[in-house]
Specification:
Belongs to the UbiA prenyltransferase family. Protoheme IX farnesyltransferase subfamily. Its EC number is 2.5.1.141. The chain crosses the membrane at residues 30-47, 53-75, 96-116, 122-143, 150-171, 177-198, 224-241, 247-267, 288-306. Pathway: Porphyrin-containing compound metabolism; heme O biosynthesis; heme O from protoheme: step 1/1. The protein contains 16 helices and no strands. With 312 residues, it is mostly helical. The chain is flat and about 55 Å long. Helices cover 79% and strands 0% of the residues. The chain folds into two domains: 16-170, Orthogonal Bundle (Tetracycline Repressor, domain 2), CATH 1.10.357.140; 174-312.
């Protein structure tokens, strides 16, 4: 076999879709957060859920999240191709055809909604269907390319999972479910805008109207502080509902103090200082924001466990 043949074969192999590429289409890192928050919503609900039904519910909520990811990658292939952090995704890299991503997303959407309805109740299934629609159509196809408020309004898509889990268990929506929704909804803008501060060039080149592109970094810093201030009472308010306890309240007090201090530090920074240290503060706050949400929902889970053991 000649060197030319070997190189051609190697290149062809590199372009072929593998199982991991289809997994990547489902955005597994985003799915992990969806699964965790939905699981917490289901487990802290005041209605006991059969373990098999609970497992089935979370499985199909996860598939619904994966469906949203596949539809997002199908439609956003042109943007992903331009941005450095997304250029190697399966569709823009050419390993998966756009039509395959669309087909996978549609099939998983139908299966996840139908099976969640059969396993739990149709209100939960309807809420899951709306979540997929909101992320794939309202956010991906409209808001993301149309307005700097894309993250603010579009954040609702990521905020629905704990509510879906709650409704799967109870068949209804309550204040607790709304506050869990609100926690994620209000967390989303400062989380993504902190990222956008040190990834502005990507969004600019892709012509995505992120706030950093349309209004500049100074205004983005101000908005991060505003939304973090608005987030604090939502997070603390959840601590005074039936699903929370001393662990959550203590965690929320510490986490929100740290997050608020981070937002304040970002607001006080000027671009010269940020560029000088490679946006160290912004990157630190962004990393902390990842733990922020996980630890809030983890604390809810701990309190639920303590209640079940009669400790709290």
């Amino acid at each position: 076999m000649t060197d030319l043949t070997t190189n051609t074969t190697a290149k062809a192999a590199e372009g072929e879709a593998r199982f991991g590429d289809y997994v990547q289409l489902l955005k597994p890192r985003v799915m992990s957060l969806v699964v965790f928050t939905a699981l917490v919503g289901l487990l802290v609900a005041p209605v006991p859920v059969d373990p098999m039904i609970g497992f089935t519910a979370i499985l199909f909520i996860a598939l619904g999240a994966g469906a949203s990811g596949a539809l997002n990658m199908w439609y956003d292939a042109d943007i992903d191709r331009v941005m450095r952090r997304t250029a190697r995704r399966p569709v823009p890299a050419g390993r998966v055809e756009a039509g395959e991503a669309l087909s996978l997303g549609l099939w998983l959407s139908a299966i996840s909604v139908a099976m969640l309805g059969l396993a739990t109740n149709w209100m939960a299934a309807g809420l899951l269907a709306f979540t997929i629609f909101f992320y794939a159509v309202v956010y991906t196809m409209w808001l993301k390319r149309a307005t700097p408020q894309n993250i603010v309004i579009g954040g609702a898509a990521g905020a629905f999972p704990p509510m879906v889990g709650w409704v799967a268990a109870t068949g209804s929506v309550s204040l607790e479910a709304l506050l869990m929704f609100g926690l994620i909804f209000m967390w989303t803008p400062p989380h993504f805008w902190a990222l956008a501060l040190f990834m502005k060039s990507d969004y600019h080149e892709a012509r995505v109207p992120m706030l950093t592109v349309t209004h500049g970094r100074a205004e983005t810093r101000r908005q991060i502080l505003i939304y973090t201030v608005l987030l604090v009472p939502v997070a603390l308010g959840l601590g005074f509902t039936s699903v929370a306890g001393p662990v959550y309240l203590a965690a929320a007090l510490v986490l929100n103090a740290v997050f608020l201090k981070g937002a304040w530090d970002i607001w006080r920074r000027d671009e010269a200082a940020a560029e000088a240290d490679g946006y160290a503060t912004e990157k630190r706050v962004f990393r902390f924001s990842l733990y922020y949400l996980f630890l809030h929902f983890g604390a809810l889970l701990v309190d639920a466990g303590l209640r079940s053991w009669g400790i709290a």
